[in-house]
Amino acid sequence: MDVRHSSDGPAVIRFRAAGLALLLAHLLFVGWLTLRPLDVPWTTAANLRPFAGIRADLALAPAEAARRIGEGLLLLAPLGILLPMAGGRLRVSPWASLARTVAAGALISMAIELAQTGVPGQVVDVDSLLLNTAGVALAHLLVVPLSRARLRRGNRAGAGDLSRIGNGLRTFRSEAPQGSPPTITRVGVAP
């Protein structure tokens, strides 16, 4: 991944660094929450049938069903915003960004589910994978396209801290005087 481009100003680098720091903090929190051993008297069997757990949750009281499904949707939802933020790109296809973000969210969710197989008290659930991935997709769709459009508008208007992103800085740098080329002193060759 190309983290630093020649047109990146300090604001863009700080924006990416903040995204990476928040992403790392969130992943550490999710890892602690989902991979810690639980001291329980018994556990349910692993759910490998898609939507079986969601159907069972919907059979509960409406408040309990909403809580359980909401937890699954919200656990990895911040990745839908933090992954593109850590990438720091403003000019990218919305569909490509969504596909990359959802694929990364699904892989992270799958890694968590696979890691849970060795943790006492934690149970593998394919519906968690589905809900986590849906949460990443929803968060991305609700926040990222509008945020990028707003930041691009700010870039064109010349306002804001991120206004130097893109072509504006590149043209400024290319118009700067070049000066004379560096010279290298000659060094004799030893026999």
TrEMBL record:
The chain crosses the membrane at residues 12-35, 69-86, 98-117, 129-146. Residues 24-144 form the VanZ-like domain. The lineage of its organism: Bacteria, Bacillati, Actinomycetota, Actinomycetes, Kitasatosporales. The keyword Glycoprotein does not apply. Residues 171-191 are annotated as: Disordered. It comes from Streptomyces argenteolus. InterPro entries: Teicoplanin_resist-assoc, VanZ-like. Keywords: Membrane, Transmembrane, Transmembrane helix. This is VanZ family protein.
